[in-house]
Each structure stands twice: as C-alpha cells, then as structure tokens.
Recover the amino acids of this structure.
C-alpha cells in the first residue's frame, strides 16, 4: 500500500504543470501561482488539523516546520524558477530530479538508511530516464552555465528535504499538523517577490485546484506512503511524475516529446519496478530466513 500511495501522489503531482498552463495562459505570474498554491493549501491543512483535533506541535519541533517552510517551500519554488530563467526548462527539470540522489545521500547521513546495489541501480535509472526525457523533449537546447547549474542543483536539494523531513516528523505528527505550520511560512517568504495581477474566474479555479488536488491531496497520500516506504525508495518511485506530466500535457495541450523522450520514460518505469521488486525480494528473503 505504501508504494500505491506514493504512485498516486506522483500522478497528482504530474498534473501540476499541464494544469498550471491554464493560469499562465491567463497571465498569472509563476511566483503568484506558487504563492497561492502554498497559501490555499495551508488553509486546507489547517481545516483538516482542526477537524481531527491535532493542531499542536511541540515547541522543540517548531523550528523544523519553519525551516521546511523556508527551504522546502519558498527556496524550492524560488530556486526552480531561477533555474528555468537561467538555463531553460529542460535543464531545470534534469537538475530538479537529482532529488533522489540528494535523498539517498541525506538518508544515509541522517536516517541511517542503507544504499545497497539495487537502490543505487534504481536511482541511476531514474536519473538517466528523467535526464533523457528532458533532453529529448526539449530538443537538446540546453544553456549550461554556472547560474543554471547552481540554481538547478539547489532546487533539487530543496525538493529533497521533503522526504527527509517527512520521514522524521510524520511519525510524530499528522501531516495536516505539520503542513499547517510549514506552508504559511513558505507563502510569507514568497510574498515579497510576488507580482499580483488581475485574475479571471478560470485562473482562480486553477489556483484552487492546484492547492487542493496536487498539493493537499498528494501530500497526504505521499505522507501515508512514507510511513512504510524508505525515503530513498519513495523519492525514486515518485520520479514517475514527469512521465505522468508528459502524458497529461499531450492529452490536454497536444504537447509531444521526441521519440527518444518516450523511450527514456521507460527508464523511469523500470526504476520504479526495480525499487518495488527489490523491496518484495528483501521481505521474502527475511521471511524464509525466519
């Protein structure tokens, strides 16, 4: 079930880009989309926390929630948009999905998760697949410079903190409680950089959808998956997201990747299979040994 939760979250996350295009088409600034996504989702999580009676965090854990709001929300959005601006969307996507590598390293350092050969193989396949999708889908037009490299790797690192924070704190708190504190911090950090503009009803509908479905809904699903799946495995399985995004973009906007892009998508699917079957193999081996 843990893997099903993670896969469901990846599917919802895959809708972010294609659906966001409706708001972008109406002239909404990308940072404003990020701001409203964080703010409206915090309302959802706050209402959820109140409904289940879990609104308190221990004082010692508040810095973690605030820190995640700064890094995992505000810094992630800001660095990703800087990466797109300085190096293009293809390179930004490649460097963003270095997240599984960052997660594997951070998990080994802070969560004491082992990096066996199967895990390393799955991470390598996932990174190769996402890189191939970005290169093929973007026509190979990449502007690699110091700024693009810096902002892109920073976005991948900031994105990876979600898995580490979630693995450590979702055993103590319901996700609604944690995000009720973290998301408003991220929104406040983004606020000074947002250029607000007039929005039509369709744009507001898109903003609400982005906050409720691929943020509130996906975070709940992913948090449930993290309870039974290691951070490294979960982050690698979640790299199915760009594959879902490519399919959704084709269905909604008729966006097409090059043939090589679809071939590299198989690398991502294979990485998910390696990770999942590896877990089942380890469980079977443990059962036989007992």
């Amino acid at each position: 079930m843990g893997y099903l939760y993670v896969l469901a979250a990846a599917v919802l996350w895959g809708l972010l880009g294609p659906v966001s295009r409706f708001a972008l088409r109406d002239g909404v600034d990308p940072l404003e989309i990020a701001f409203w996504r964080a703010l409206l989702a915090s309302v959802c999580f706050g209402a959820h926390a109140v409904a289940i009676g879990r609104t308190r965090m221990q004082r010692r854990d508040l810095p973690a929630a605030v820190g995640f709001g700064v890094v995992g929300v505000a810094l992630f959005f800001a660095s990703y948009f800087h990466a797109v601006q300085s190096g293009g969307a293809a390179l930004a996507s490649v460097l963003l999905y270095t997240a599984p590598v960052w997660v594997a390293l951070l998990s080994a350092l802070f969560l004491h998760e082992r990096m066996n050969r199967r895990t390393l193989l799955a991470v390598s396949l996932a990174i190769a697949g996402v890189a191939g999708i970005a290169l093929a889908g973007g026509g190979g037009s990449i502007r690699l410079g110091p700024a693009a490299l810096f902002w892109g790797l920073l976005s991948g690192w900031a994105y990876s903190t979600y898995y580490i924070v979630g693995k450590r704190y979702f055993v103590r708190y319901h996700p609604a409680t944690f995000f009720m504190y973290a998301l408003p911090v991220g929104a406040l950090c983004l606020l000074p950089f947002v250029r607000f503009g007039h929005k039509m009803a369709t744009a507001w509908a898109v903003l609400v959808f982005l906050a409720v479905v691929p943020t509130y809904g996906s975070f709940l699903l992913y948090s449930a998956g993290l309870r039974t799946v290691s951070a490294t495995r979960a982050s690698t399985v979640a790299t199915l997201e760009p594959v879902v995004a490519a399919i959704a973009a084709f269905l909604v906007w008729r966006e097409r990747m090059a043939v090589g892009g679809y071939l590299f998508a198989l690398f991502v699917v294979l990485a998910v299979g390696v990770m999942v079957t590896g877990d089942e193999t380890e469980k079977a081996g443990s059962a036989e040994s007992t």
Summary: The mean pLDDT is 81.
